[in-house]
Structures are given as C-alpha cells and as structure tokens.
Specification:
alpha/beta; Rossmann fold; five-stranded parallel beta sheet
Length: about 200
C-alpha cells in the first residue's frame, strides 16, 4: 500500500457515508471500496457457507442454496455468540479481499466506506479518518425507507454497532439535511484539506 493514501469513512447506517464517499471520490479522483458489498460477497464463499450451515442450520438458505441475508441477520442479531462467529468469518474474508483490491488499485487515494470499519485493521492503517453523524430520528427514517425493513429489525441490527470515539477521527461531519444539500460542498472542502495534507 506504499504511496497510497487510505481514507476511512464510517458512521451508523443512514448518515450518508456512501453519498459522501462518492462525492469525495469525484474531487480526489479516488477509488471507493464499499466494504458492505464485500461482506455480501463473503456469503457466496463455499467455505463460509459450510461454516454458517453448521452454526445457523439450513433455514438461512433459499432453494438455490444462496444465503437469505435477512433470515441470517435475524438469527445472528438475537444471539451474541452466533453473531461473533458470523462477524469473524465475514471480517477475515473482507480484510483479505479488500487488501487485494487496494494493492491492485492504480489510484493514489483509496476510500474505504463501512459502518464497522473501526473494528478492522484498515482503520488503524488509514491516513485520514472521517466520521459521519446524523440525528437518530433523521437517519433511522432514511434507513427504514431505503432498506424497507421494520423498526424492530433495525433496532436489533443496531444494538450491535460499535461506539465511535470522536478523538480517533480527523474530521466529523454532521449530516442532518433531509436531502444531503450541503454534502457536495463539504466533500469539496474535505478533499482540499486532504490534498493539502498529503501533496
């Protein structure tokens, strides 16, 4: 990863991480890796499927043998021990896959975006760390509409989120606008700050 600048963008679901990361990438000519999408890839890995079958049973699989993510989530979020196993399997896959993507990228700036990024090795390795924040009411409404899930499912999913230590971040962005009106301007300012720091 020599000569590459790693930028972490994290925060709870619905704070605008993906939207902001895309805007920031445009100004920095950066490549974005959305680790949530990579975590979905882990559920297609045959070895991980075998491990999850032993832990969760066959109810998490559909007729074609693919994992039903919502069903897996319901079972995992209600059992701390099983959730730990799921997270470990997924994290190992994600870290190996992301490492490969970073090393193969031709871009100087790499943006990593993920709610659980602070629990991964890339967080400590990042050169610039950004925390996205929104009021709980605004961001939860965004998530309920975006993901088409129940409040109960959202609450069970969120009880396992990490707490973010603001002192660990280079920048904290409050995104309480309903339609992300100010994010592009903030992304432009942030990109200038990053360029000044590293170029």
């Amino acid at each position: 990863m020599k000569n590459k600048i790693l930028i972490s963008v994290t925060g709870k679901s619905g704070t605008g991480k993906s939207t902001f990361s895309k805007m920031l990438a445009k100004f920095l000519n950066a490549e974005i890796f959305e680790l949530d999408k990579i975590s979905h890839l882990s559920l297609k890995d045959d070895k991980i499927k075998e491990e999850l079958l032993l832990v969760f049973g066959n109810t998490i699989f559909d007729e074609s043998g693919e994992i039903k993510r919502k069903e897996l989530g319901k079972l995992a979020f209600n059992d701390g021990a099983k959730l730990k196993i799921l997270n470990k399997l997924s994290q190992d896959f994600m870290e190996n896959h992301t490492q490969m993507l970073i090393e193969n990228s031709a871009h100087k700036y790499i943006i990593l975006e993920y709610a659980l990024l602070s629990q991964m090795k890339f967080f400590s390795e990042s050169d610039y760390k950004i925390l996205m924040k929104s009021s709980d009411e605004i961001r939860k409404n965004r998530v309920l509409i975006r993901d088409n899930i129940s409040k109960e499912y959202l609450e069970s999913r969120e009880k396992n989120l990490p707490s973010y230590q603001e002192k660990d971040f280079d920048e904290i962005i409050e995104n309480n606008e309903s339609f992300f009106e100010n994010l592009e301007l903030i992304a432009k300012i942030t990109s200038n700050n990053i360029i000044e720091k590293f170029e």
